[in-house]
Specification:
273 residues, five-stranded mixed β-sheet, four-stranded antiparallel β-sheet, 9 helices, 2 domains, alpha+beta
Length: 273
Amino acid sequence: MSDKTDEFENDLKTTICSFAELALPKNIPNWIEELGISANDRITNAVRVGSVGHKTDIIINFNNGACLKVSAKMSSADYFGNWYSHQRIIREFGSDLFQKLTKDCTEWANSWINSDNASLFVGVSISFGKRTGDTAREFTDIFTADDIVKIVAGVGNGIETANCLYSSSMLPRSIDDLFQILKPIDTNTIMQLSKNFKIIYRPINPLTEGSNRGKCTYTQFKSCQSYQPRKTVETLNDLKKLGKFYEVTDNGLNHNRVLQSLEDEYNIFIPRK
């Protein structure tokens, strides 16, 4: 999470807390009423969740025990789901989908390695959200439109699973403004999001990136042979002469382990940041 996003969520929580005990709008949306909240109820407080893997960012609590579990996304936000692990993909979408994803990612990597825009990489991580250009893949080529709900709202019924969306870079000016900005995570909202909802392939350059090397990769570069003496590779052009990308199993493989495997199995050394 960026510092800007972190600050915005804290400010949003504080602003919502300032609406505690104020009268709710008279014409409260139907979808909010269906969550057990009426115009006679009052906000008691707001709590920021902010846990890794949770889709709920802020919980708005009401005097009757009901709550709104808000996924807060600034208008400029590109990512709705960031750095998905193998375990999470399988838990939320199943093993068959994981196999489709590593197959597609591997085909993409073996094409991207020949792009003039590519830099050195040995693996590719994935995120979901808004993206244009060659690192964007059509979401519905692998997933279904309904799967967007899992990425935006999460899976399950606990506090970690959001039931509404706050999609704005502006803080609400009033309690009425808050309820106008909040949207249900329903078919209409998802259809709006799906217009530019992509799988985002994120090749990680070991020469320039540090912590991101610890993220799961959905493809793995392997050499055609081992070398003596040790071969040092610092450019993509040199790397692609040595082998190609292969599909991975759901073992949590990350970019650091791919780099180590190239050293241990093929005596190929790639410098790290």
